[in-house]
Write a structure and sequence with these properties.
The protein is α/β, with parallel strands linked by helices. Helices cover 34% and strands 28% of the residues. The strands form three sheets. It has a six-stranded mixed beta sheet with strand order 6-7-8-3-9-10, with helices on both faces.
Length: 309
C-alpha cells in the first residue's frame, strides 16, 4: 500500500529526510516516532504529494508520487497537525462543504457526513458551530473530514497533540477502529504512550534518519539488550541476592530500598527457569518474580541518541 525508496528532502544544508525506506501493507497502523524536527512531517508530506522530494521514490497503492499525483490524492487522507476551521459554519455545513470539494455527489453528501460523524462519535455536535468546539472535538471533526472520501491510506500528523488525557484516549480508540477497517495508517507522534497499544508497526526517526523500523515485538526485542528480573522474597533478601550472584546466567544483582531484588541476566539469555528453582530449593519463599517489560518509551531511549535537526 505504501512503499518509499531512499526518500530524501533537503533544505539548503539541512537534510530533513534522509534515505527513508519503508514498506507498509494494507491494515498496517504505523507509528512514526521522533522528536519535533526529526523529519516526520516532511516524510508524510512527500508521501501525500504535497512536497516534492529531492531524491528517491514513493508509491501509494502502486501509484508513483511523480506521475500519479491526482490518483494518490484521491487515495490518501492527510490530516495535518494544525488545521483551520471556518467561522459561522456548523459541523454539518463544514463537512458537507468538504464533501463537495471531494466531488461526492450532492444527493449522497448528507448520508456520508452523518456516517463519518457516527464513526468519530461526534453526531451529537452536528449542529454546533465549528469554531466553538473544544480542541479534542476539533481533532475528531478533522479526522471525519479526512475520512469523507473513504481513503485507503491515512496520514495523520500528531493527531493527539495538545489534547487532554480523555481526548487522547478517544483518538487512540479511533486509530484502533481504523486498523480494524483495514485502512493503512501512518500516525506520527512524539508522545510514545499514545502509540504503544494501537500500532502494528513502528518506525523511529532521528535527525532525518530512520533508526529502526519493524513490528512492535521486533523493536522491543532489539531494544532489550539484557533481561532484567524483579524478584522479591519473604525474608533474608540479602542472602537471596548473594545466591543469585553465584548463578552463571546472572550478570548483576542489586537490592532496592523496597527490598526488591533486580537481577540483570547475561546477554542473549532467554531461559531463566533455573533462577526460581534455585531460590525455592534454597528455602526462600518467592513473593514476586517477573521480567521487566520493555515499553515503547524505553525502546526509544535505548535505540536513539536524542538528536534533532
Amino acid at each position: 500500500m505504501i512503499e518509499t525508496r531512499n526518500l530524501t528532502k533537503r533544505y539548503g544544508n539541512l537534510i530533513a529526510a534522509n534515505d527513508i525506506t519503508l514498506q507498509l501493507d494494507q491494515g498496517d497502523v504505523f507509528g512514526f516516532i521522533g522528536p519535533n524536527g526529526s523529519g516526520k512531517t516532511t516524510t508524510m508530506r512527500m508521501i501525500a504529494t504535497l512536497l516534492a522530494p529531492d531524491h528517491g521514490e514513493a508509491y501509494v497503492c502502486g501509484k508513483s508520487i511523480y506521475t500519479d499525483q491526482e490518483e494518490i490524492r484521491r487515495l490518501v487522507g492527510f490530516m495535518p497537525d494544525f488545521f483551520g476551521v471556518y467561522d459561522d459554519m456548523t459541523v454539518i455545513e463544514y463537512l458537507e462543504f468538504f464533501a463537495a470539494t471531494y466531488r461526492i455527489p450532492a444527493h449522497k453528501r448528507r448520508a456520508v457526513v452523518e456516517e463519518k460523524l457516527e464513526l468519530v462519535d461526534m453526531a451529537f455536535k452536528r449542529d454546533a458551530m465549528v469554531n466553538e468546539l473544544s480542541r479534542g472535538q476539533t481533532q475528531r471533526i478533522g479526522l471525519a473530514r479526512t475520512l469523507l472520501h473513504d481513503p485507503q491510506v491515512l496520514l495523520l500528523d500528531e493527531p493527539a497533540s495538545g489534547l487532554d488525557p480523555r481526548a487522547r484516549i478517544e483518538i487512540r480508540n479511533l486509530l484502533r477502529r481504523l486498523g480494524e477497517m483495514k485502512k493503512t495508517v501512518i500516525v506520527s507522534s512524539h508522545i510514545l504512550p499514545e502509540l504503544a497499544d494501537v500500532c502494528t508497526r513502528v518506525g523511529m526517526i532521528e535527525k532525518g534518519h530512520m533508526i529502526v523500523d519493524g513490528n512492535v515485538a521486533e523493536v522491543m526485542r532489539k531494544a532489550r539488550q539484557r533481561i532484567l528480573l524483579n524478584i522479591q522474597v519473604r525474608e533474608k533478601t540479602d542472602e537471596a541476592a548473594r545466591l543469585l550472584e553465584q548463578l552463571d546466567i546472572v550478570e548483576q544483582v542489586s537490592v532496592t530500598g523496597q527490598q526488591l531484588i533486580e537481577a540483570t541476566l547475561m546477554p542473549e539469555t532467554e531461559d531463566y527457569s533455573e533462577i526460581p528453582t534455585a531460590l525455592v530449593e534454597a528455602g526462600f519463599a518467592l513473593m514476586l518474580f517477573r521480567e521487566e517489560e520493555v515499553n515503547l518509551e524505553t525502546a526509544f531511549l535505548q535505540l536513539t541518541k536524542g538528536l534533532v535537526q
